[in-house]
Structures are given as structure tokens and as C-alpha cells.
Amino acid sequence: MLKSPRKIYIPGDISSAAFFMVAGSIIPGSRILIKNVSLNPTRTGAVKVLKRMGADIEVKNVKRKAKNFESMGDVLVKSSELRGTRVSIKEIPLLIDELPVLMVAASLARGKSIFEGVEELRVKETDRIRSMTENLKKMGADIRVNKVKNGESIIINGVKSLKGSRVKSFGDHRTAMSMIVAGLAAKGSTRIDDVSCISKSFPDFIRVIKSLRA
Questions:
Q1: What is the pLDDT of residue 174?
Q2: Smallest Cα–Cα separation from 53: which of 28, 27, 87?
Q3: If you write DSSP's letter for every residue of 110-147 in order, what string do you get?
Q4: Residue 167 and residue 164: Cα distance in Å, rounded?
Q5: Which pLDDT value is given to residue 210?
Q6: 160 CB contacts (<8 Å, ≥6 apart)?
Q7: H or E element, residue 56
Q8: 98 to each of 13, 66, 175, how far by Cα in Å?
Q9: What pLDDT does residue 195 have?
Q10: What pLDDT does 109 receive?
Q11: What contacts 24+ positions apart, CB below 8 Å, involve 90-99?
Q12: Catalytic center residues
């Protein structure tokens, strides 16, 4: 017999929040408060990596796991100077969906970043290794893919700035949102061929981004 739990609290998706965390970190003068975000420890890999890169991220108002909801809290992000980092193969499963936007962060971080064991990105909605490397190279990023016996790694040497360019979404929502974040941080205008794919996971993304710039 099924029994209603009465109330279920559904926190915000941390994968979607990651785009705003990166935007808040790399766009000068930014301050973004993201409320009621899931803090499930199996989903917070991107937060740990960004903090390791020097991101000014503070988790506030934490509500610990209780009967009808998982851990959640508010995430305050302020612009900061990021530095490169190494993301090990063991970390990848905890942030696989956030890798595209973390690549944007690494492109503007001081020093070298290495993302190990990223071959799973080849078999997402599109080949995200191809989509992100092609797009970021057009914008002036120093990025390459290193193929090894058991997989692939992405190596990114941070640059001082990205330049606006014409880029493609490749029909992939996370590529499209990542390139919007990159475009906001770049010098000059950026055009993305198609952003309709964003509706797959975050239909209001563009509206929310525009509201933050108002």
C-alpha cells in the first residue's frame, strides 16, 4: 500500500547551477546567489573543483538530509581569479555533466588544467570533447586532447581573455549553455547557431541569464 509523504522538497539541480557558478567566477564584478541547491555529496564534484581553482564560493543555509528531502543550501559566488587544476579520473563520475562549463572556467584560469579520463564525453547527446574543443579554440583558448592507451585527457592552458566568435551548439544543451557563459566572459560578441536544444534541461536558462545582467 502506497503512503503519501505529504510534502517532498525538491532542491535545485546542481548541474544547472554549475553554469551560474562558473559565470559568477569568471565575469568580473559578479555576485550571484543560487538558492536551495542540492548538496547531495555525489553531485557536488564541480563545487569542489571550482573551490580548488580558487573560486570564491560560499555554501550557506545548509539544510541537512531529513525524512522528505536531501541536503540543500544556498550557494554564493563572487568573481575571482581562477588557477589551473588537475581533475583526476576518480573525480570524473561526480562531475561528468559539468565538464563542459568547467572547461570554460579552465580556459580563463591562470596556468594549466588537466581533465583526466574524459572519454565518456564522446558518447553524450553529442561528442562533447569535439564540440567544446572546436568552439573554445575559435574563441582563442589553448586546448588540446591527449589520447592515451586507456582513454583521453583534456589539457587547457589558461589565456588572459577569450574573443567573441561564431560557435555551434551541435544540438547539445550543455554545449550551448557553456558557450553562452563563455560568450558572456569574452571580449566582443559571440553568436551561437542554435540554442533551442537548451529546452531539454533548462528552458528558462536564457531568461535567467538575461535577468542577472539587468
A1: 97
A2: 87
A3: BSEEEE-S-GGGGGSSS-HHHHHHHHHHHTT-EEEEEE
A4: 9
A5: 92
A6: none
A7: strand 56-63
A8: 11, 26, 10
A9: 96
A10: 98
A11: 91/45, 91/48, 91/49, 92/116, 92/117, 92/118, 92/120, 94/42, 94/43, 94/44, 94/45, 95/45, 95/46, 95/49, 96/120, 96/121, 97/15, 97/18, 97/174, 98/15, 98/18, 98/45, 98/46, 99/128
A12: 97
pLDDT at 68: 58
**Is 128:172 a contact under the CB 8 Å cutoff?**
yes
- Measured distance CA(188)–CA(114) in Å, rounded: 27
Enumerate the domain spans of the chain. 14-207
Instruction: For residue 177, count other CB atoms closer than 10 A to its CB.
Output: 29
40 CB-near residues (< 8 Å, 6+ apart):
14, 70, 71
Q: Hey, is 194 helix, strand or coil?
A: coil
State the amino acid at position 59 in one-letter form. V
Q: How far apart are the first and last CA of the chain?
A: 50
Query: What CATH number matches the domain at 14-207, 3.40.640.10, 3.40.109.10, 3.65.10.10, 2.30.30.140?
Result: 3.65.10.10
Helices within 8-142 (DSSP H only): 14-26, 45-52, 99-107, 128-138
Within 8 A by CB and 6+ apart from 28, the residues are: 79
Q: Which cell is 192 given?
A: 551561437
Q: What is the mean pLDDT of each run of 10 residues along the chain (214 residues)?
A: 73 94 97 93 93 96 71 94 97 95 98 97 95 98 92 97 97 98 97 96 95 79
